[in-house]
Amino acid sequence: MKNIKIIANLFTLLALTVSFSFAPAALADNSNIANNTSAGNTTKGHGLGAATAGIGSQNFCTHFSTLSQKYETDMNKQTSSLQNKVDSESQKIQNNQQNSDNTLQQNRAKWAQNRQNIYARLNSKATTDSEKQAVTTFQNAIESAVKTRESAIDSARTTFRTAVKQIVSQHQSNVKQVLSTFQAAIQSAIQQASAQCSSGTAAATVRETFRSALQTARTARQSGAAQIDKVGPQVEQLAQTRNAAVQQAMQAYQTAMQSAVSALKTAFAQNTNSNSTSGANTNTGTTATTNQ
Prior knowledge:
Elements: H1 2-19, H2 24-27, H3 39-42, H4 48-53, H5 60-125, H6 129-199, H7 203-226, H8 231-278, H9 285-290
């Protein structure tokens, strides 16, 4: 039947407008989150140990003041660099999410217009009150299903983003803590060395004590960094949970759409069959008109 074929084609178009609604735009907003804040990169050494290695035992206290000042400058640069990286990565995440939101909203507006076009075409084919009511019922069912789908997907995306933000924030905090502890240990070693030099302790003894303190600080830094959970696996797990929720929402929508499609097809088919029977002997044009 011609009407049924037209409706079937419209349903196919409707399905295509939503089948891939949330692939890149809604799901790919976790780009580059995984390893943006690596503890190994943000707690690297500052070359103080190498600098002390080039100073002889007898001259250690003579040059230590200049060496310690260099350390202060290097550590300040390192702290500033870390903060800049944190700020940059945080901004990058926000930009990615905003771009994803903008794309999704644009697509939703386009899909909504496509649906309205489909409803208009269906209404143009509805020639009886029962067909018109069937189209209205269909439209209400589809719009309700779309609203439910979008709400479920928005909830999954929000849950994902909130969890990612917490993970990244905690990771950054842990990295900063490792660096802060390392800096404090080095600062303590410098103060001790300065005090020993001022008190007349043998330069060789001060030098070895200082180098030992540096090594202890480095070991503690490496141990602390190793204990920080990596962001990547956690974000991947969250993404899997989000994707599962999105797929569930899409499947629920497809089920609701198929039910609405079936009801509308039935309504149009019943009306077509009724017209075919009543018009067989009195008006052969009735069926043709109904089936256009």
